[in-house]
Design goal:
- The chain has two domains: 108 residues, Aspartate Aminotransferase, domain 1 (Alpha-Beta Complex), CATH 3.90.1150; 241 residues, Aspartate Aminotransferase, domain 2.
- It is 44% helix and 16% strand.
- The protein has a seven-stranded mixed sheet, with helices on both faces. A four-stranded antiparallel sheet has the order 11-12-15-14.
- α4 links the parallel β3 and β4.
Length: 359
Amino acid sequence: MSEILLTPGPTPLPDYVREALARPIIHHRTDAYRAIFRRVAVGLPRLFHTAAPVFTLTGSGTAAMEAAVVNLLSPGEEAIVLLGGKFAERWQHLCEAYHIRAVTVPVAYGEAVDPAQVEETLTRYPAAKVILATLTETSTGVVHDLEALGRIARAQDRILVADAISGLGADACRTDAWGVDVVVAASQKGLMLPPGLGFLSVNERAWKCVERSRSPRYYNDLRLYREAAAGDDAPFTSAIPLVIALDLVLAKLNEEGIEQVWQRTATLAASVRAGAARLGLSVFARRPSNALTAIAVPEAKRVVEAMHAQGVRVAAGQGEMAGKILRIAHMGHITDSDVQAGLKALGQALAQVTTGAQA
């Protein structure tokens, strides 16, 4: 029995991606590969809604997050970290690893960050020039108001960095229009690829921080990536099959139009939320993302296991939300039929767990 994958990363692969990944490998230091790399370099900024360059790293989304920290900040400096979930907390852990003081703005799980609280924190910490934020918090299903955060960051002359690893290609992300200086993303979610590529868009405001940073860096040194990009290349070995498949994905997304992709994803999200309501369940996030829906479910761990037994894979809660929520994705190549199968499996799993609890 084939499994229906409704996890918020990795997400299902389109047939054309799987076919591309199965092709014979080619050498990357060739004109043929450089032409592909050039098309990717042109296509990614359209997806990010930016005129800034987007650098492609071989590594997961966390590698791109780490690249943002070490290239923008130096040991001993302060950064404002907006919390609210397990992945927002990763910004804090990365800062601590590189001896950067993380000034945290607490946000309860399931809530969106309060822009007024961010503004007040910036006033109290004028030396903190970088704000580390999240577009879509994968652990809670919350989408934060990045547009409001961008206005505040620009008004106070701060650099705004956003983790859009789950949000890119699902939730609206208007990088330049919203005043976001750096956006971090990865391949295995809205981009419909396997894990293995990380991305960073970096504008000229942020680049000044890159040139000043004193943090130790080598593989993630964006100065090397900028230099190599001038020759349509990467400074280190590319994940060649993934970049070739990414070239195809970007062409498909460009053909559909990113605005239409956002709308399609929003329609699937609404279907999931309506289905949860019919089952008597509530959405966990106060400001829900269109990339995934976190649903408060009694006996969530057992429900997730019962759904998997039916061939439907969803994600359980993480950290303090373990056993309290489950998470259903509706981004990338996930279809309405996938979503409906997931809701059917959820209903059956709830009935099974409830019956077992009453026995």
